[in-house]
Hints:
Layout: H1 10-14, H2 19-57, E1 67-68, E2 73-74, H3 77-108, H4 111-123, H5 129-156, H6 171-195, H7 199-207, H8 212-223, H9 225-241, H10 244-249, H11 267-274, H12 281-313
Antiparallel strand pairs: 1-2
Amino acid sequence: MEPLATPEPRWRVLRGVNAGDRWYRAALTGLALTLPLLLVALVGELVVSAWPAIRRFGLPFLWSSVWDPVAGVFGAAPMIFGTIASSLLALLLAVPLALGVAIYLSEFAPKWLRQPVAFLVELLAAIPSVVYGVWGIFVLIPFLRSYVVPPLRATLGWTPFLQGVFYGNSLLAGGVILAIMIVPYIAAVSREVLLAVPAAQREAALGMGATRWEAVWTAVVPYGRAGLIGAIILGLGRALGETMAVTMLIGNRHDIGMSVLQPAYTMAAAIANEFSEATTNLYLSALFEVGLILFVITVAVNGLARLLIWRVARGTAVGSRAL
């Protein structure tokens, strides 16, 4: 009697030995490697294009303030300062507003109001940057000139941060427009983080006699603090790379000043303004080096943010490690 043919073991299919699974795995692997390869290609192109300026100016390029295309002397210190200062000013204005919106929508707003308001807040992220810039020129700057700067100078004019004449285009205007642009990003992610907090956290705090606000501040926010930090860093990354709206409002003056009422310059604005005007190889290479510095700062900020989130989330609940 001939033995019966045994069927193919199931483990071969489960382990992906057949041809279809191998092709599927190869396709997914290729797609997964695309982004790292694009990142490496981008870094390589930036380094190669910026190498003449790196070799010519060296590290002093980072703290030199001279930017003279005619003489062929370039320094990026005012651009680096303007980028960091405008982004930090935007965070200072946007974080309280965005977190307040997120806490209100997730904890205090009526159910019929939550979705419409959340939709309108998130809709701000869909507005093109140039529209923000036009609105800033015709609405924001006159509003700052008439209603914001005079009382600020009357109360805090003795500080070095409010010195000089306010003409409109300034670090303050650029920071405010950046704050408006990053609010929807921070608010949307923060709201999702707060909604992911288990109801038991709120109930436990309320059961201990806390008020509704105390329950939010002592139980809900600490539980999701890692996600909230991630939301803030997401807004910072958005602010660092913003180009068009900032270019239209910040004044584009290659100078370092402590006053927020004076014009400033950012690295993204410099690239947008001067890339088409770079008539020499050294000039073009200097702009590529500015782009490389902006890339490094952005990656460093996000890397430090990830380390901070891992450290803050250590030992906390799983929900706070979502980001």
